[in-house]
Amino acid sequence: MLYVLIIVMSGVVATLAMDGNPWWGLVGMGVLFLSGWSYFLPVRYTMDEEGVRKKSAFGLEEKKWHQVKRIVPDRYGVLLSPFPQPTRLAKFRGLSVQFSGNGEEVLEYIRAHAAGN
Question: Which class is 43-114 in CATH?
Answer without folding.
Answer: mainly beta
